[in-house]
Write a structure and sequence with these properties.
alpha/beta, Rossmann fold, 7-stranded mixed β-sheet, 7 strands, single chain, globular
Length: about 220
């Protein structure tokens, strides 16, 4: 993606909204337009380098759109990797007055993610924790109105069941690498999808324009 496309994306997505900064003793939050430019430049500089279990840019934009459209503010990510998806999520949250808790078990990936958040100018909007998500999701009090799961696939159903009571009505639970066409549906991913799509309280569809993202809204 060229810089021209990044800036066009900013205009299309309406990225010039106001920010609601979180206090920090170490760094003053940037203004809305200034932050947009910084994040866009960061993403441009890192184009094509997001490997190591990160999402593609198209799925990052989808997460961004979901948060901005529904004005979510209390977000949780399971599986930070080195932070590509969290950058998109936090960018949207910077406009809704929200904040993200993101969990990564690997020390190296966690350390690189924290540095990426700093370079993107988004540290104020992200609480990055190095922990075993299986334990931490049970301890987190919530509530949450947006969850993105992209961790160990065998744990997908367990993560959802632990977080379901903490997900607000009207909230959204998303999971990566889910497909209705067969790929990515084996083992834990398939068990999760079969479970969540049958829940009457959850309305689920799968966006397969990228790497496969299930999107489930909690109706009640």
């Amino acid at each position: 993606m060229r810089w021209g496309k990044i800036t066009a994306c900013i205009a299309i997505l309406g990225l010039s909204g106001l920010l609601f900064p979180f206090p920090s003793p170490s760094q003053k939050p940037r203004s809305g337009v200034d932050l947009d430019r910084k994040v866009a430049a960061f993403l441009e500089s890192r184009q094509g380098t997001w490997r190591d279990l990160n999402v593609p840019a198209s799925d990052g934009r989808l997460l961004y759109d979901l948060i901005l459209k529904n004005r979510y503010t209390k977000a949780l990510e399971i599986g930070t990797s080195t932070g590509h998806s969290a950058v998109w999520i936090a960018w949207a949250l910077s406009k809704t007055g929200g904040r993200l808790i993101t969990i990564e078990i690997d020390e190296g990936r966690h350390r690189q993610a924290v540095e990426n958040f700093r370079q993107a100018g988004l540290s104020h909007y992200i609480d990055a924790r190095r922990a075993d998500a299986h334990a931490l999701v049970r301890e987190l009090k919530g509530p949450f109105d947006f969850v993105f799961c992209d961790a160990d696939k065998e744990g997908y159903k367990a993560y959802f069941m632990a977080l379901y009571p903490k997900l607000e009505a009207g909230g959204c639970y998303t999971a990566h690498n889910v497909s209705t066409r067969g790929w990515g549906m084996g083992g834990g991913t398939g068990a999760f999808y079969d479970y969540i799509r049958k829940l009457p309280s959850m309305k689920t569809h799968v966006d397969e324009s990228g790497a496969g993202l299930s999107v489930s809204y909690k109706i009640y």
